[in-house]
Predict the structure.
Amino acid sequence: MRNFDLAPLYRATVGFDQIADMMDRVLSSDVAQPTYPPYNIEKNDDDAWRISIAVAGFAEDDLSVELREGALIVSAKKADDGEERTYLHRGIATRAFERRFQLADHVRAMGATHADGMLHIDLVREVPEALKPRRIAIAGGKSSDKDVVDAKSVN
């Protein structure tokens, strides 16, 4: 495994602590990333995305989607129906899972839908008006006679 020293990044940047912390978490993670359940991330617009997660075998009541500390957390736990079954082959995994997606600033979940074994979560970036770029008008630069001081009257 490679070791990266991010100390120079901390010294040379101001206000990017969250990005540096996220890079540090990703690079120092020794645990293999889970592959269950499979998912897609689509970009629908410049500021809109859709996360689609394959959740075959789970009902809506078994699924949970929440936003916590800048992360979208999707989890599922199959409710026990009390029926004991004997499988000859079990290829459909319905084991409990938790999948985390770190969201950028100002990205929020618009809603979630569950249909045909897929959970779709729509995300959108909504930048507050105060943070949007704005044009500042430039006034004319003519100086008036009131601002000019006569050199003879000062001495």
In short: Residues 28 and 51 are 25 Å apart (CA to CA).
